[in-house]
Amino acid sequence: MADVTFTSPAMPKDVTVYAVAGDTRTLLSVAKEHKVPIHFECENGECGSCACEVSVLSDKAPLAVHLTEKEKTVLRLAGKITPDQVRAAEVSDLPPPYRLACQFIVRDEDIVVKF
Ligand code: FES
């Protein structure tokens, strides 16, 4: 089980939901299930409208660092991540500050999602 906390000025208060361990749904799918109003358009990693700031709340190494090629390109073009942050994710498994909710797979780790 992992706690996923959504926080946004678009919501009256933060919402924390539980993602089941072993579940391989996207962050956007979890948000939609719980009626969290993350903006989205394409749901295919192409428009960048679902970009969210994701923080891992754990001392352990982050589990869900993998960025798809689409995600790297869209986040870079949107100015949400730098080439150095892409390299850090690829080489050192350091999580970038922003992810696309429609591409990010929720893993068994507690996260805070700002949008
Ligand atoms: Fe378009 Fe996620 S909804 S990139």
TrEMBL record:
InterPro entries linked to this entry: 2Fe-2S_ferredoxin-like_sf, 2Fe-2S_ferredoxin-type, 2Fe2S_fd_BS, Beta-grasp_dom_sf
PROSITE patterns in alphabetical order: 2FE2S_FER_1 (PS00197), 2FE2S_FER_2 (PS51085)
A GO molecular-function annotation: 2 iron, 2 sulfur cluster binding
CDD domains with a match to the protein in the record: fer2 (cd00207)
Protein name as annotated: Uncharacterized protein
Naturally occurring in which organism (per UniProt): Rhodoplanes serenus
